[in-house]
Recover the amino acids of this structure.
């Protein structure tokens, strides 16, 4: 059995066949999907994500303001998320963080909103899902200053950073989740990073609908394909795929307390 620890299945990409892809995932051995609601907090996207988790036994929910949407975050957004995370089946606050690759929101706004959401998640006693791109130093510095001494930390999702970032994230008590990127031909460096991550810190995800793993490149990504991420990590760590499925699922359940 496998768990897709990070997917986006509440959006328009899956409006035509959402129930089928959830069934297809079950048939492929995916017991659980963590669906991550993103978007402008005032758009209704988070309510939509929470409702999906309440409709399906295999779907849990995370909500938070993505760095792309940091410019939409305000007091009302924070109050809304604080209320919604109390709903049934919401496991985490995220994804939150910094994205200095796309810079869809100004960097100073991203930093301020990242700090605010870390504090809010801590108040709500929820782990966080971290998105970081081209902002490694800033991300670690902020986590160090905001999360010193907390017990429940979070996940670095869709990890594609350096060995140094992975090490520092692990030292800070975080989990490391790999997506289909780790299966890509040119990802030798990332596979070398994955080899160094202790087995009890590993998670797997699709981040669908994007980042489709090999051998499904070119198709829309979906939770069933998380098996390919497990296969790749199993090869890297020299265990069989069932064992990788079992241990990443155990890690997920232990970490998110389900
Ligand atoms: Zn992300
Ligand atoms: Zn994501």
């Amino acid at each position: 059995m496998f768990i897709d620890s990070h997917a986006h299945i509440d959006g328009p990409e899956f409006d035509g066949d959402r129930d089928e892809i959830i069934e297809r995932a079950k048939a492929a051995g995916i017991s659980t999907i963590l669906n991550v609601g993103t978007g402008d907090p005032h758009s209704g996207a988070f309510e939509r994500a929470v409702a999906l988790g309440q409709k399906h036994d295999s779907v849990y929910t995370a909500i938070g303001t993505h760095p792309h949407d940091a410019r939409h975050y305000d007091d009302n957004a924070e109050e809304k998320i604080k209320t919604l995370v109390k709903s049934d089946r919401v496991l985490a606050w995220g994804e939150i963080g910094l994205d200095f690759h796309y810079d869809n929101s100004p960097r100073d706004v991203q930093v301020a909103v990242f700090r605010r959401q870390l504090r809010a998640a801590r108040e709500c006693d929820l782990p966080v899902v971290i998105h970081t791109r081209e902002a490694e130093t800033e991300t670690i510095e902020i986590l160090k200053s905001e999360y010193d001494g907390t017990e429940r930390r979070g996940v670095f999702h869709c990890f594609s950073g350096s060995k140094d970032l992975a090490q520092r994230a692990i030292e800070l008590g975080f989990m490391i989740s790999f997506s289909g990127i780790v299966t890509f031909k040119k990802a030798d460096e990332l596979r070398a990073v994955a080899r160094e991550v202790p087995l009890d810190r590993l998670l797997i995800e699709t981040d669908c609908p994007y980042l489709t793993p090999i051998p499904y490149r070119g198709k829309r990504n979906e939770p069933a394909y998380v098996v390919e991420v497990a296969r790749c990590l199993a090869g890297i760590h020299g265990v069989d795929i069932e064992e990788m499925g079992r241990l990443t699922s155990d890690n997920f359940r232990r970490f998110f307390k389900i």
